[in-house]
Protein backbone atom coordinates (compact mmCIF):
# COMPACT_ATOMS: atom_id res chain seq x y z
CA UNK A 1 0.00 0.00 0.00
CA UNK A 2 1.39 3.46 -0.82
CA UNK A 3 2.56 5.65 2.03
CA UNK A 4 -0.39 7.50 3.53
CA UNK A 5 -2.92 5.13 2.02
CA UNK A 6 -5.98 3.94 3.94
CA UNK A 7 -7.32 0.39 3.94
CA UNK A 8 -11.12 0.21 3.90
CA UNK A 9 -12.73 -3.25 4.05
CA UNK A 10 -15.62 -3.80 1.68
CA UNK A 11 -18.82 -4.29 3.71
CA UNK A 12 -21.83 -6.38 2.92
CA UNK A 13 -23.74 -3.14 2.42
CA UNK A 14 -21.46 -2.26 -0.52
CA UNK A 15 -21.89 -5.67 -2.13
CA UNK A 16 -25.63 -5.73 -1.53
CA UNK A 17 -26.65 -4.75 -5.03
CA UNK A 18 -24.48 -7.35 -6.74
CA UNK A 19 -25.50 -10.89 -7.61
CA UNK A 20 -28.60 -12.87 -6.86
CA UNK A 21 -28.06 -12.86 -3.06
CA UNK A 22 -28.81 -9.18 -2.51
CA UNK A 23 -30.59 -8.49 0.79
CA UNK A 24 -32.05 -5.13 -0.21
CA UNK A 25 -33.60 -4.81 -3.64
CA UNK A 26 -32.06 -2.09 -5.83
CA UNK A 27 -34.00 1.14 -6.15
CA UNK A 28 -34.77 0.31 -9.78
CA UNK A 29 -36.86 -2.72 -8.73
CA UNK A 30 -40.63 -2.46 -8.86
CA UNK A 31 -42.02 -1.03 -5.56
CA UNK A 32 -38.57 -1.39 -3.99
CA UNK A 33 -38.06 -0.52 -0.30
CA UNK A 34 -34.89 1.26 -1.39
CA UNK A 35 -31.32 0.97 -0.28
CA UNK A 36 -30.89 2.01 3.39
CA UNK A 37 -28.97 5.22 3.97
CA UNK A 38 -25.34 4.67 4.91
CA UNK A 39 -24.29 6.19 8.27
CA UNK A 40 -22.03 9.17 7.74
CA UNK A 41 -19.90 8.09 10.70
CA UNK A 42 -20.81 4.67 12.20
CA UNK A 43 -20.74 4.68 16.01
CA UNK A 44 -21.09 2.06 18.76
CA UNK A 45 -24.68 1.25 19.73
CA UNK A 46 -26.13 3.66 22.29
CA UNK A 47 -28.31 2.53 25.16
CA UNK A 48 -30.79 5.31 24.36
CA UNK A 49 -30.96 8.72 22.69
CA UNK A 50 -29.79 10.81 25.65
CA UNK A 51 -29.61 14.63 25.48
CA UNK A 52 -26.31 16.10 24.34
CA UNK A 53 -23.98 17.16 27.18
CA UNK A 54 -26.01 15.11 29.65
CA UNK A 55 -23.13 14.85 32.14
CA UNK A 56 -22.71 18.65 32.15
CA UNK A 57 -26.30 19.22 33.29
CA UNK A 58 -25.66 18.66 36.98
CA UNK A 59 -29.20 19.13 38.34
CA UNK A 60 -30.67 15.67 39.10
CA UNK A 61 -33.74 14.81 36.97
CA UNK A 62 -33.34 17.98 34.92
CA UNK A 63 -34.20 15.99 31.78
CA UNK A 64 -37.36 14.46 33.30
CA UNK A 65 -40.91 15.84 33.31
CA UNK A 66 -40.96 16.09 37.11
CA UNK A 67 -38.11 16.86 39.47
CA UNK A 68 -37.40 15.26 42.82
CA UNK A 69 -38.96 18.19 44.70
CA UNK A 70 -42.26 17.78 42.85
CA UNK A 71 -42.32 14.02 43.42
CA UNK A 72 -41.72 14.46 47.16
CA UNK A 73 -44.54 17.02 47.31
CA UNK A 74 -46.89 14.67 45.42
CA UNK A 75 -46.00 11.84 47.80
CA UNK A 76 -47.38 13.88 50.73
CA UNK A 77 -50.93 14.01 49.36
CA UNK A 78 -53.03 12.21 51.96
CA UNK A 79 -54.08 9.09 50.04
CA UNK A 80 -50.60 8.62 48.60
CA UNK A 81 -48.91 9.20 51.94
CA UNK A 82 -51.17 6.67 53.67
CA UNK A 83 -50.37 4.10 50.97
CA UNK A 84 -46.63 4.64 51.38
CA UNK A 85 -46.76 4.43 55.16
CA UNK A 86 -48.87 1.26 54.97
CA UNK A 87 -46.27 -0.43 52.77
CA UNK A 88 -43.50 0.64 55.15
CA UNK A 89 -45.46 -0.74 58.12
CA UNK A 90 -46.01 -4.07 56.36
CA UNK A 91 -42.31 -4.48 55.64
CA UNK A 92 -41.26 -3.37 59.12
CA UNK A 93 -43.30 -6.05 60.84
CA UNK A 94 -41.50 -8.88 59.01
CA UNK A 95 -38.59 -10.74 60.53
CA UNK A 96 -35.53 -11.83 58.54
CA UNK A 97 -32.43 -13.98 58.78
CA UNK A 98 -29.10 -14.63 57.13
CA UNK A 99 -28.89 -18.25 56.04
CA UNK A 100 -27.09 -20.64 53.72
CA UNK A 101 -28.20 -20.80 50.12
CA UNK A 102 -29.73 -24.01 48.80
CA UNK A 103 -27.08 -26.59 48.05
CA UNK A 104 -24.40 -24.86 50.12
CA UNK A 105 -22.35 -26.78 52.68
CA UNK A 106 -23.73 -25.81 56.07
CA UNK A 107 -21.64 -25.26 59.16
CA UNK A 108 -23.13 -24.95 62.62
CA UNK A 109 -22.52 -21.63 64.42
CA UNK A 110 -20.88 -20.10 61.35
CA UNK A 111 -19.08 -16.91 62.43
CA UNK A 112 -19.73 -15.33 59.04
CA UNK A 113 -23.50 -15.41 59.56
CA UNK A 114 -23.06 -13.70 62.92
CA UNK A 115 -20.88 -10.98 61.36
CA UNK A 116 -23.37 -10.22 58.57
CA UNK A 117 -26.30 -10.36 61.00
CA UNK A 118 -24.54 -7.88 63.27
CA UNK A 119 -24.07 -5.42 60.41
CA UNK A 120 -27.71 -5.52 59.32
CA UNK A 121 -29.10 -5.30 62.86
CA UNK A 122 -27.86 -1.68 62.93
CA UNK A 123 -26.58 -0.87 59.43
CA UNK A 124 -25.26 2.57 60.34
CA UNK A 125 -24.16 1.50 63.81
CA UNK A 126 -26.97 3.45 65.50
CA UNK A 127 -30.37 2.99 63.83
CA UNK A 128 -32.22 -0.35 64.19
CA UNK A 129 -32.74 -2.11 60.90
CA UNK A 130 -36.54 -1.65 60.79
CA UNK A 131 -36.28 2.14 61.17
CA UNK A 132 -33.30 2.28 58.80
CA UNK A 133 -35.13 0.34 56.09
CA UNK A 134 -38.16 2.65 56.29
CA UNK A 135 -35.98 5.47 54.97
CA UNK A 136 -34.80 3.33 52.05
CA UNK A 137 -38.34 2.20 51.20
CA UNK A 138 -39.55 5.82 51.41
CA UNK A 139 -37.07 6.92 48.73
CA UNK A 140 -37.94 3.93 46.59
CA UNK A 141 -41.71 4.51 46.69
CA UNK A 142 -41.67 8.32 46.55
CA UNK A 143 -38.86 9.09 44.08
CA UNK A 144 -37.53 5.61 43.11
CA UNK A 145 -33.97 6.62 43.89
CA UNK A 146 -33.00 4.60 46.97
CA UNK A 147 -29.31 5.19 47.71
CA UNK A 148 -27.00 3.54 50.25
CA UNK A 149 -23.41 4.55 50.98
CA UNK A 150 -20.86 1.90 51.92
CA UNK A 151 -18.78 2.76 54.99
CA UNK A 152 -15.38 1.08 54.91
CA UNK A 153 -12.47 0.66 57.27
CA UNK A 154 -8.98 1.86 56.39
CA UNK A 155 -8.29 -1.59 55.03
CA UNK A 156 -11.32 -1.40 52.73
CA UNK A 157 -13.57 -3.80 54.67
CA UNK A 158 -17.29 -3.00 54.79
CA UNK A 159 -18.23 -1.80 58.29
CA UNK A 160 -21.52 0.05 57.76
CA UNK A 161 -24.32 1.13 55.44
CA UNK A 162 -25.59 4.73 55.52
CA UNK A 163 -28.72 5.92 53.74
CA UNK A 164 -28.32 8.93 51.42
CA UNK A 165 -31.01 11.20 50.01
CA UNK A 166 -31.46 9.85 46.48
CA UNK A 167 -32.62 13.28 45.29
CA UNK A 168 -29.01 14.51 45.60
CA UNK A 169 -27.55 11.82 43.31
CA UNK A 170 -27.06 12.33 39.57
CA UNK A 171 -26.01 9.32 37.43
CA UNK A 172 -23.26 9.72 34.85
CA UNK A 173 -23.07 7.92 31.50
CA UNK A 174 -20.39 7.02 28.97
CA UNK A 175 -20.40 7.95 25.29
CA UNK A 176 -22.71 5.04 24.47
CA UNK A 177 -25.17 5.81 27.28
CA UNK A 178 -23.96 3.09 29.65
CA UNK A 179 -22.84 3.31 33.26
CA UNK A 180 -19.07 3.93 33.62
CA UNK A 181 -16.99 0.84 34.44
CA UNK A 182 -15.89 0.03 37.97
CA UNK A 183 -13.27 2.42 39.31
CA UNK A 184 -14.51 5.49 37.40
CA UNK A 185 -17.01 8.07 38.70
CA UNK A 186 -20.50 6.73 38.00
CA UNK A 187 -22.48 9.26 40.08
CA UNK A 188 -22.18 12.78 41.42
CA UNK A 189 -23.76 14.20 44.54
CA UNK A 190 -25.27 17.66 44.09
CA UNK A 191 -25.59 19.84 47.20
CA UNK A 192 -27.14 23.33 46.92
CA UNK A 193 -26.49 23.35 43.19
CA UNK A 194 -22.82 22.46 43.66
CA UNK A 195 -21.08 19.28 42.55
CA UNK A 196 -20.19 17.91 45.97
CA UNK A 197 -18.18 14.81 45.05
CA UNK A 198 -17.71 11.98 42.56
CA UNK A 199 -18.92 8.51 43.51
CA UNK A 200 -18.27 5.10 41.97
CA UNK A 201 -20.27 1.89 42.14
CA UNK A 202 -17.96 0.84 44.98
CA UNK A 203 -18.94 3.91 47.02
CA UNK A 204 -22.73 3.77 46.87
CA UNK A 205 -25.56 1.40 46.01
CA UNK A 206 -27.91 3.30 43.70
CA UNK A 207 -30.99 1.08 43.37
CA UNK A 208 -33.97 2.40 41.40
CA UNK A 209 -36.56 -0.37 41.23
CA UNK A 210 -38.45 0.46 38.04
CA UNK A 211 -35.99 1.36 35.28
CA UNK A 212 -36.83 2.05 31.63
CA UNK A 213 -34.66 1.67 28.54
CA UNK A 214 -34.91 5.36 27.58
CA UNK A 215 -34.40 6.90 31.02
CA UNK A 216 -31.65 6.97 33.63
CA UNK A 217 -33.99 7.60 36.56
CA UNK A 218 -36.54 5.27 38.11
CA UNK A 219 -40.27 5.46 37.41
CA UNK A 220 -41.83 5.15 40.84
CA UNK A 221 -45.51 4.72 41.73
CA UNK A 222 -45.92 8.40 42.64
CA UNK A 223 -44.82 9.53 39.18
CA UNK A 224 -47.09 6.96 37.56
CA UNK A 225 -50.26 8.62 38.94
CA UNK A 226 -49.32 12.30 38.79
CA UNK A 227 -52.56 13.23 36.98
CA UNK A 228 -54.65 11.41 39.59
CA UNK A 229 -52.72 13.10 42.40
CA UNK A 230 -53.40 16.52 40.85
CA UNK A 231 -57.09 15.64 40.64
CA UNK A 232 -57.09 14.61 44.30
CA UNK A 233 -55.51 17.94 45.27
CA UNK A 234 -58.19 19.92 43.44
CA UNK A 235 -60.95 17.71 44.81
CA UNK A 236 -59.72 18.21 48.36
CA UNK A 237 -59.39 21.96 47.80
CA UNK A 238 -63.04 22.03 46.73
CA UNK A 239 -64.10 20.05 49.80
CA UNK A 240 -62.06 22.29 52.11
CA UNK A 241 -63.54 25.43 50.57
CA UNK A 242 -67.04 24.16 51.36
CA UNK A 243 -66.13 24.39 55.05
CA UNK A 244 -63.96 27.51 55.02
CA UNK A 245 -65.22 29.76 52.20
CA UNK A 246 -68.77 28.60 51.56
CA UNK A 247 -71.73 30.85 52.39
CA UNK A 248 -74.56 28.38 51.99
CA UNK A 249 -76.54 27.62 55.20
CA UNK A 250 -78.55 24.46 55.83
CA UNK A 251 -81.64 26.29 54.62
CA UNK A 252 -83.43 29.65 54.44
CA UNK A 253 -86.58 31.15 55.95
CA UNK A 254 -89.02 33.09 53.75
CA UNK A 255 -90.69 35.95 55.62
CA UNK A 256 -94.40 36.64 55.44
CA UNK A 257 -95.64 38.52 52.42
CA UNK A 258 -95.41 42.28 52.85
CA UNK A 259 -92.45 42.37 55.25
CA UNK A 260 -89.94 45.14 54.65
CA UNK A 261 -86.13 44.55 54.67
CA UNK A 262 -85.90 46.26 58.08
CA UNK A 263 -88.47 43.91 59.56
CA UNK A 264 -86.63 40.87 58.14
CA UNK A 265 -83.31 42.18 59.54
CA UNK A 266 -84.87 42.81 62.97
CA UNK A 267 -86.39 39.32 63.07
CA UNK A 268 -83.04 37.79 61.98
CA UNK A 269 -81.22 39.59 64.81
CA UNK A 270 -83.76 38.43 67.39
CA UNK A 271 -83.74 34.86 66.05
CA UNK A 272 -79.92 34.63 66.14
CA UNK A 273 -79.79 35.99 69.67
CA UNK A 274 -82.13 33.26 70.83
CA UNK A 275 -80.41 30.30 69.14
CA UNK A 276 -76.77 31.06 68.29
CA UNK A 277 -74.50 28.95 70.51
CA UNK A 278 -77.31 27.89 72.89
CA UNK A 279 -78.08 24.18 72.46
CA UNK A 280 -80.94 24.27 74.97
CA UNK A 281 -82.81 26.98 73.04
CA UNK A 282 -82.33 25.17 69.69
CA UNK A 283 -84.03 22.12 71.20
CA UNK A 284 -87.19 24.12 71.93
CA UNK A 285 -90.04 24.95 69.55
CA UNK A 286 -89.86 28.48 68.15
CA UNK A 287 -92.86 30.59 67.22
CA UNK A 288 -92.57 32.45 63.92
CA UNK A 289 -94.83 34.97 62.15
CA UNK A 290 -97.66 33.65 60.00
CA UNK A 291 -96.53 32.84 56.45
CA UNK A 292 -92.90 32.02 57.32
CA UNK A 293 -91.62 29.09 55.26
CA UNK A 294 -88.42 27.03 55.53
CA UNK A 295 -86.55 25.76 52.44
CA UNK A 296 -83.74 23.23 53.08
CA UNK A 297 -80.73 22.99 50.79
CA UNK A 298 -79.40 19.72 49.45
CA UNK A 299 -76.28 18.52 51.24
CA UNK A 300 -72.96 19.11 49.50
CA UNK A 301 -71.35 15.93 48.05
CA UNK A 302 -68.54 15.69 50.62
CA UNK A 303 -67.90 12.11 49.50
CA UNK A 304 -69.27 10.29 46.47
CA UNK A 305 -68.33 7.64 43.93
CA UNK A 306 -65.68 9.87 42.38
CA UNK A 307 -63.74 9.90 45.64
CA UNK A 308 -63.89 6.11 45.73
CA UNK A 309 -62.56 5.96 42.17
CA UNK A 310 -59.57 8.14 43.09
CA UNK A 311 -58.88 5.94 46.12
CA UNK A 312 -59.05 2.84 43.91
CA UNK A 313 -56.48 4.25 41.48
CA UNK A 314 -54.02 5.08 44.27
CA UNK A 315 -54.55 1.71 45.96
CA UNK A 316 -54.05 -0.17 42.69
CA UNK A 317 -50.85 1.73 41.94
CA UNK A 318 -49.39 0.66 45.30
CA UNK A 319 -50.97 -2.83 45.06
CA UNK A 320 -53.02 -2.26 48.21
CA UNK A 321 -56.64 -3.33 48.74
CA UNK A 322 -59.05 -0.36 48.47
CA UNK A 323 -61.19 -1.76 51.29
CA UNK A 324 -60.79 1.20 53.73
CA UNK A 325 -61.97 3.73 51.13
CA UNK A 326 -65.02 2.08 49.60
CA UNK A 327 -68.42 0.87 50.75
CA UNK A 328 -68.39 -2.26 52.84
CA UNK A 329 -67.89 -5.44 50.82
CA UNK A 330 -68.40 -9.02 51.89
CA UNK A 331 -65.67 -10.73 53.90
CA UNK A 332 -64.65 -13.20 51.16
CA UNK A 333 -64.05 -10.44 48.61
CA UNK A 334 -62.15 -8.38 51.17
CA UNK A 335 -59.86 -11.31 52.03
CA UNK A 336 -59.31 -12.03 48.34
CA UNK A 337 -58.24 -8.41 47.77
CA UNK A 338 -55.81 -8.58 50.68
CA UNK A 339 -54.22 -11.80 49.40
CA UNK A 340 -53.87 -10.38 45.91
CA UNK A 341 -52.30 -7.20 47.28
CA UNK A 342 -49.78 -9.31 49.21
CA UNK A 343 -48.81 -11.29 46.13
CA UNK A 344 -48.74 -8.38 43.68
CA UNK A 345 -47.33 -5.63 45.86
CA UNK A 346 -45.48 -6.64 49.00
CA UNK A 347 -43.59 -9.70 47.75
CA UNK A 348 -41.99 -7.85 44.79
CA UNK A 349 -40.81 -5.13 47.18
CA UNK A 350 -39.29 -7.75 49.44
CA UNK A 351 -37.59 -9.29 46.42
CA UNK A 352 -36.16 -5.88 45.49
CA UNK A 353 -34.56 -5.52 48.91
CA UNK A 354 -33.35 -9.12 48.92
CA UNK A 355 -31.39 -8.44 45.70
CA UNK A 356 -29.72 -5.45 47.34
CA UNK A 357 -28.91 -7.35 50.53
CA UNK A 358 -27.63 -10.38 48.62
CA UNK A 359 -25.33 -8.07 46.69
CA UNK A 360 -23.87 -6.79 49.96
CA UNK A 361 -23.49 -10.30 51.41
CA UNK A 362 -22.09 -12.00 48.31
CA UNK A 363 -20.13 -9.18 46.67
CA UNK A 364 -18.94 -6.92 49.50
CA UNK A 365 -18.41 -9.66 52.07
CA UNK A 366 -17.58 -12.33 49.49
CA UNK A 367 -19.83 -14.95 51.13
CA UNK A 368 -21.27 -16.59 48.02
CA UNK A 369 -22.96 -19.36 49.98
CA UNK A 370 -25.05 -17.02 52.18
CA UNK A 371 -28.19 -15.07 51.38
CA UNK A 372 -30.86 -12.82 52.86
CA UNK A 373 -34.19 -14.48 53.70
CA UNK A 374 -37.50 -12.89 54.70
CA UNK A 375 -39.79 -14.79 57.02
CA UNK A 376 -42.73 -13.78 54.83
CA UNK A 377 -45.28 -16.56 54.55
CA UNK A 378 -44.57 -17.83 58.05
CA UNK A 379 -45.19 -14.40 59.53
CA UNK A 380 -48.09 -13.32 57.34
CA UNK A 381 -50.22 -16.48 57.22
CA UNK A 382 -49.12 -19.07 59.79
CA UNK A 383 -52.09 -21.41 59.23
CA UNK A 384 -51.58 -21.62 55.47
CA UNK A 385 -47.82 -22.05 55.90
CA UNK A 386 -48.36 -24.88 58.41
CA UNK A 387 -50.67 -26.65 55.97
CA UNK A 388 -48.18 -26.30 53.12
CA UNK A 389 -45.30 -27.58 55.25
CA UNK A 390 -47.38 -30.54 56.44
CA UNK A 391 -48.20 -31.58 52.87
CA UNK A 392 -44.60 -31.15 51.65
CA UNK A 393 -43.20 -33.17 54.57
CA UNK A 394 -45.68 -36.03 54.15
CA UNK A 395 -45.04 -36.20 50.39
CA UNK A 396 -41.30 -36.26 50.91
CA UNK A 397 -40.73 -32.99 49.10
CA UNK A 398 -38.79 -31.57 52.03
CA UNK A 399 -37.35 -32.97 55.22
CA UNK A 400 -38.36 -32.01 58.74
CA UNK A 401 -35.11 -30.09 59.22
CA UNK A 402 -35.64 -28.14 56.01
CA UNK A 403 -39.04 -27.04 57.30
CA UNK A 404 -37.53 -26.14 60.67
CA UNK A 405 -34.75 -24.16 59.02
CA UNK A 406 -37.24 -22.18 56.93
CA UNK A 407 -39.02 -21.12 60.13
CA UNK A 408 -35.78 -20.23 61.92
CA UNK A 409 -35.67 -23.27 64.23
CA UNK A 410 -32.68 -25.46 65.00
CA UNK A 411 -32.46 -28.86 63.25
CA UNK A 412 -33.49 -31.98 65.11
CA UNK A 413 -31.62 -35.28 65.19
CA UNK A 414 -32.69 -37.67 62.44
CA UNK A 415 -34.69 -35.08 60.53
CA UNK A 416 -32.38 -34.61 57.56
CA UNK A 417 -33.84 -37.35 55.32
CA UNK A 418 -37.06 -36.70 53.40
CA UNK A 419 -39.71 -39.29 54.24
CA UNK A 420 -42.99 -40.38 52.66
CA UNK A 421 -45.63 -40.96 55.31
CA UNK A 422 -47.92 -43.91 54.58
CA UNK A 423 -50.61 -45.58 56.65
CA UNK A 424 -48.09 -48.28 57.60
CA UNK A 425 -45.46 -45.72 58.67
CA UNK A 426 -42.74 -43.43 57.32
CA UNK A 427 -40.60 -44.65 54.41
CA UNK A 428 -37.43 -42.85 53.28
CA UNK A 429 -37.71 -41.30 49.81
CA UNK A 430 -34.46 -43.02 48.82
CA UNK A 431 -35.97 -46.45 49.62
CA UNK A 432 -39.05 -45.70 47.57
CA UNK A 433 -36.85 -44.66 44.68
CA UNK A 434 -34.79 -47.86 44.96
CA UNK A 435 -37.90 -50.06 45.01
CA UNK A 436 -39.28 -48.23 42.02
CA UNK A 437 -36.00 -48.75 40.16
CA UNK A 438 -35.98 -52.49 40.98
CA UNK A 439 -39.53 -52.86 39.71
CA UNK A 440 -38.62 -51.02 36.54
CA UNK A 441 -35.54 -53.22 35.99
CA UNK A 442 -37.54 -56.41 36.55
CA UNK A 443 -40.19 -55.29 34.12
CA UNK A 444 -37.54 -54.46 31.54
CA UNK A 445 -35.95 -57.94 31.95
CA UNK A 446 -39.29 -59.58 31.35
CA UNK A 447 -39.72 -57.55 28.20
CA UNK A 448 -36.21 -58.35 26.94
CA UNK A 449 -36.37 -62.12 27.78
CA UNK A 450 -36.80 -64.41 24.65
CA UNK A 451 -40.13 -66.17 24.22
CA UNK A 452 -40.04 -69.93 25.19
CA UNK A 453 -39.85 -72.39 22.26
CA UNK A 454 -43.19 -74.12 21.53
CA UNK A 455 -43.30 -77.87 22.24
CA UNK A 456 -43.11 -80.34 19.32
CA UNK A 457 -46.39 -81.89 18.16
CA UNK A 458 -47.27 -85.01 20.15
CA UNK A 459 -44.46 -84.47 22.66
CA UNK A 460 -45.26 -85.21 26.27
CA UNK A 461 -44.65 -82.39 28.76
CA UNK A 462 -41.69 -82.90 31.02
CA UNK A 463 -42.44 -83.76 34.60
CA UNK A 464 -40.70 -81.77 37.23
CA UNK A 465 -39.08 -83.25 40.27
CA UNK A 466 -41.11 -83.58 43.39
Q: What is the percent of helical residues?
A: 25-40%
> What characteristic shape results from the CA principal axes?
extended
How many helices? The count is 14
Structural class: alpha+beta
Oligomer type: single chain
Low-confidence stretches: none
What letter string, H or E per element, gives the SSE order?
Answer: HHEHHEEEEEEHHEHHEHHEHHHEEH
Please state how the strands of the largest beta sheet are arranged side by side.
3-2-7
Number of strands: 12
Radius of gyration: 37 Å
What amount of the residues lies in strands? 5-15%
- Biggest sheet layout: 3 strands, antiparallel
Mean pLDDT across every amino acid position: 82
Structure commentary:
With 466 residues, the chain is of the alpha+beta class. Helices cover 39% and strands 12% of the residues. The protein is built from 14 helices and twelve strands. A three-stranded antiparallel β-sheet has the order 3-2-7, covered by helices on one side. A hairpin with a 5-residue loop joins strand 2 and strand 3 (158-164). Helix 2 packs antiparallel against helix 4 (129-142) and helix 6 runs antiparallel to helix 9 (305-317). The chain is extended. The relative contact order is 0.09.
Amino acid sequence: MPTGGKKTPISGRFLNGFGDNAVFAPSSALFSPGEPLIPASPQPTRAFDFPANFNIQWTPRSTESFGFAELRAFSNVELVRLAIETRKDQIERLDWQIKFRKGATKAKDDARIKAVDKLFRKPDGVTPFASWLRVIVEDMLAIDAATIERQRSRGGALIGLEYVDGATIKPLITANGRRPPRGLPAYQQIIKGTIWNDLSVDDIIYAPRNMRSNHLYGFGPVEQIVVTINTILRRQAQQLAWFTEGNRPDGILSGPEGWTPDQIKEFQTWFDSRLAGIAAERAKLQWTPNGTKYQAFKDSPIKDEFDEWLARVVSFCFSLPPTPWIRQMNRATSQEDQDRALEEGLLPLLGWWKRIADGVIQDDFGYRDLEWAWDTIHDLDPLKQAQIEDIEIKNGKISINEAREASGRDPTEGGDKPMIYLASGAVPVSMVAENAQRAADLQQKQIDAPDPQPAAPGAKPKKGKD
